[in-house]
Design a protein that fits this description.
Elements lengths: L1 H26 L2 E6 L1 H6 L8 H6 L1 H5 L5 H7 L8 H17 L5 H10 L4 E5 L5 H5 L6 E3 L2 E8 L8 E2 L1 H9 L22 E5 L8 H4 L2 H12 L4 E6 L14 H4 L5 E7 L21 E5 L2 H10 L5
Parallel strand pairs: 1-2, 1-7, 2-3, 7-8, 8-9
Antiparallel strand pairs: 4-5, 4-6
């Protein structure tokens, strides 16, 4: 009986919090959405778990790799020596994950929640889920880039190239191996050097995404709404440094007292009482923390209906 009372009490608490969070969003002049890996993980795209490697990258699994994070760390940078193996991994990742992996419900619910709202999305995810959901491209800042697009490895120009038409030929050239044929590695049409996915795993190197104006669009969004009623919606932020570059908005959001923070994360993740955004940490009563299955929480937030 005591267990059931605690269980229903916990659900009641989150029911109230979710209802309040939705009301904040509906009343806000603008919503700044910050998406970390937790939102994709809730929908099955967990780059720290072995399932994706076992299902989509079996050869690597047999070699002892147990997460996409391991593989991406190994192929974070391309060299002349690893170029064929580098593209052997990334071609498959881009096709299987960025293009073909099903859009998760959390992103569908977020799109529904943002419909007809003034919003901007900052994400560190490179899995293509945000873009696949149908959000307007000029309202997204992909801090680590977008692996569906390619850029010159020597940065000879700021142009980005769609990868989709190239992938089948690259993968076919592998013939079941882990390396592509050298003549199938895509090259920059301007300088002839290798093309690489537009991703920067450490967020420290400017990507094509920035040169396309995403960062400037984000700054304009902040400037436009800094004196209005703002909701900061954090989804699946698993550590303070996950969205390190976005923390530059602390100074701007701190200029207004009309900021409300909604933190949502998976129940299995460590949800600390602090935000990456230092000004948001001072909100006290203007902050809601929700720690439960993120897809379920998003469904309830978007519908406004809590079912037992």
């Amino acid at each position: 009986m005591v267990f059931l009372e605690k269980l229903f009490k916990k659900h009641e608490d989150y029911t109230e919090q979710i209802t309040k969070a939705r009301q904040w969003i509906l009343e806000a002049d603008a919503i700044a959405v910050y998406i970390g890996s937790g939102l994709s993980a809730a929908g099955g795209l967990d780059d720290k778990k072995s399932r994706l490697v076992k299902e989509y990258f079996r050869d690597y699994y047999r070699m002892g790799y147990r997460s996409l994070k391991e593989l991406q760390e190994m192929y974070a940078h391309m060299t002349e020596q690893n170029a064929k193996a580098y593209w052997g991994y990334w071609a498959r990742y881009i096709k299987e994950i960025a293009y073909q992996f099903e859009l998760s419900n959390g992103y569908k619910d977020l799109l529904r929640l943002m419909r007809n709202r003034e919003y901007f999305i900052c994400t560190t995810n490179i899995d293509g889920q945000v873009q696949k959901a149908g959000f307007e491209a000029n309202r997204i800042w992909s801090l680590k880039g977008d692996c569906r697009f390619l850029k010159c490895s020597q940065a000879c120009c700021p142009k980005a190239y769609e990868s989709k038409e190239l992938l089948d030929g690259i993968i076919k050239s592998m013939g079941g191996n882990l390396e592509v044929q050298a003549n199938k590695i895509p090259r920059c049409p301007h300088c002839g050097m290798y093309l690489i996915p537009d991703v920067e795993m450490d967020c420290l190197v400017e990507s094509i995404g920035d040169s396309q104006g995403q960062l400037e669009a984000y700054k304009r969004f902040i400037e436009k709404h800094k004196n209005e009623k703002i909701v900061l919606l954090e989804l699946g932020i698993e550590s303070r440094d996950l969205i390190q570059m976005a923390s530059r908005d602390d100074r701007v959001w701190g200029e207004t007292s009309c900021v409300q923070l909604v933190k949502m994360n998976n129940s299995k993740d460590d949800l600390k009482g602090e935000s990456y955004n230092e000004s948001a940490n001072k909100l006290k009563d203007e902050m809601i923390s929700i720690k439960m299955d993120l897809e379920e929480a998003m469904s309830q937030l978007a519908s406004g209906i809590i079912s037992m």
